[in-house]
Amino acid sequence: MSSAAPEQAQTAGYARAIGEALGIPDIERHAPRPELGETPTRLAVWDVLGLRDIHATAGGELTFLQTERTGTDGITRVVVELTLTVHVAEVGPIEAVTDWEPTLVAGEEEKWRRELVAAAELAKPQPTLLEQLATASQVSRDIAMRVGAGKDLDPKWRASERRCDDLWRQGREAGHSDKELSAAVFGRAGS
Taking the model in full, what pTM does it have? Predict the structure, then answer.
């Protein structure tokens, strides 16, 4: 798959595709903020919890980089930059990035604990493609059960279905048979 030019990613259609793939329905109203390192294909996410939510919806490859950032207060801090790269059909790779400062701040213990747990979840080894397909299919079914007849209008359900389609395609490209892929989707191990 080839990457789209950044100018193309700015169009409403590409923004919609990116938003649906990442589970962010209102992304079309979002203009890139260069001061945060954003581009049409690089999105700054508020925190580790938001990045974890995108990863749960869209999957992707996660990288960690320890770096330094100087805040608006002029103080330089050591942070961990987490970058999630998601391949969006007809757009190419999209990066969602956030910084995590693993320093405990007085009064923010609970937020720090939640972010630590989210960072640990993101750092876990990635499941196999068939395991990812099984999980994505279950997520899609769970959303459909919760939403009911209006599931086609739900952006998270549409994103989960696209994720399933992408994983199915990747599975075929990796040489998995339709029987193996169906077994993952419908939970029939060893079929």
Answer: 0.60
